[in-house]
Specification:
Number of helices: 25
Strand order of the largest sheet: 8-10-7-11-9-12-13
Strand content: 15-25%
Largest sheet: 7 strands, mixed
Helix content: 25-40%
Shape: globular
Radius of gyration: 26 Å
Amino acid sequence: MKQAMTPEEIKAQKPYLDWSLSEREYNYIADTLLHRLPNYTETGLYSAMWSEHCSYKKSKPVLRLFPNKNARVLQGPGEGAGVVDIDDGQAVVFKAESHNHPSTVEPYQGAATGVGGILRDIFSMGARPIASLDSLHFGELSDPKMRMKVQNTVKGIGDYGNCMGIPTVAGETTFDPCYSGNLLVNAMSVGLMDQDQLQKGVANGVGNAVMYVGAKTGRDGIHGATFASADFSDEHATQRSAVQVGDPFMEKLLMEACLKLIQEHPDWLVGIQDMGAAGIVSSSAEMATEGGAGMELNLDLVPQREPNMSAYEIMLSESQERMLLCVVKGHEADVQKIFEDFDLAAVVIGRITDGHDYVLHHDGQVVCNIPVTTLTEDVLEEESEEREPARLAAARQAAAWLPEITDAGATLRQLLAQSTVADKSIFFEQYDSMVQTATVVGPGSDAGVLRVRGTKKGLAMTTDGNGRFVYLDPEIGGKLAVAEAAANIVASGAQPLAITDCLNYGDPTDPEIFWELHHSVLGMAAACRAFDTPVISGNVSLYNENNGQAIHPTPMIGMVGLIRDLAHVIPMAAQHAGDLVYLIGHTGNDFAGSELQKMLTGEISGALNDFDLAATAATQRQLLAAMEAGHVASAHDLAEGGLGVALAEALFKTDLGFKLGLKDMPAAQLFAESPARFIVTVPASHQMAFEAALGTAARQIGEVTASHWLQATLKDGQLNENVATLQTTWEEAIPCQLKSKA
């Protein structure tokens, strides 16, 4: 077979530079690892496997800062997904992945295949996916093109998840100009399994079969990993060849076949892995490396849906709905029978060999013969220059921005109409949140909650992240992201267990952006230790820029919590007239990066105030204990829009109101976004027990009323708003923006 370029031509013309492989890396591979020039196929494999998306060569030193173990962690980073013990021999499995560049280019397929890919990571571990979540960050809805991208992204997520029969139960959606040229589409999946069915991506045992199962390979998604490892610009605006095309019906069959094999015939299976980023090469090389084995593949045997595909194309295609299995020799036909019953291809494409060589045959020729670890373990880590952004020092010296609020009610109504705060029902109503009939709390609450069938237990889950805070102070912003996710979990009555993350940043070769990455991870790691929520999985998505303009640094935190008894699930909305209302946490002049600041000034600025992680974690533990003791009727954490927005949200879709005394609170502080706060309602009969449990952290501010009014006496005025009017404003804001002809 004729290679596209000879090794000598590759050395001279340097096509690898367009594939995100540097000249230094190419020379190291040729001179030190191979002691010869790599051919065209080999160069392509190195380019994909050494990309940031696959190798984390720039971010590994930072990722080592995360804690990733505690008494409950059964599997941390390094496999398809993380696994956490939830007692009774059961485990929860979860992970999040980004699909940012594909979704920016082709929102529908980018979002859909993001969902499909993360689901495969879950069932490759032996777990059945039970829920999906998302974290979506768009430009402003005033842009007609952005409105189209938003609607297609949401449709892609909904269509794929609905066809799979997996409920989407929680998520977040924000809007900011910084995401106009580079969307963030982060997908999270949660699965449930018995611990004894845990699988890993490993291949070993000389003579064992390497089996390809699922859809055929095409030319879609070639070099998707390197596409995700380079700056985005207008010239990529039509780069659809790097975007995969999904088929959820095929994925449903693939999932059921894989789970049948894992659950009924685990002795036939050595290992299993999704063909994700970098396709066949990543799954096969990583499995062989993990097993300390060599591997020989015949690419002529790979099922292909397009004619005349080269070895380079076959290996680097990211066609969807495909898995790689290592099967015990002698059981190949047994495995094929399982997949044939689901009308799926299952083909032996190679064998495990002695040693560590990775050998590929195509058209009767050897097109690759390299040590497998050179693809996976010999990647050159890259030291990165870092420098504190000048804006941070300037913000520390500048006077803090303090708003003047003369009409608290008008300000609240205006905030409720902001797209980041407003009701997102028009989006999540396109997702089936009740399929599988295990959903206890669906989208629109602080966290989604699902029951664990056959037990009293439940699982709470959330996604959270605020790029504005991280932009203003990466370390404090990183702490806030984890604390907010933990607050969402605790507000539902659950104990936070662990996190997955998507680290979405700009070009790491910019010293200021790498500084943002490093210092936000420092903050997140400190918070993970405080809350005892280790990082068990996740991904890094760098180069999120368009024409040199980076997004705000936006780490997304996906967190799962355990509810020991579903009788203690806490609703977000107020429950009964006569209940007492408590504010937990301290309110200060925290306006930097707030929704109020953006609304009134059109930008964000200023320095963030730090907060005490240990005290925050202790308060959350006290609140959870009070919930489990039955002292709490409802709880809602405070986030965008502060106390004012949280109070309104806690009354929406009820016939209740609040009458509050806030005589020491200026109207402006009603919309401050001070961290670590909750609104909690407590039955009057539990007042003494609740106050004893929370101590000085909780302050009674009023009571729930039978009138549908939000009333508060403030230091400098009154708030007196009809809740039905507020709810209409909140509900109609986004539908009106989507229908705008501007």
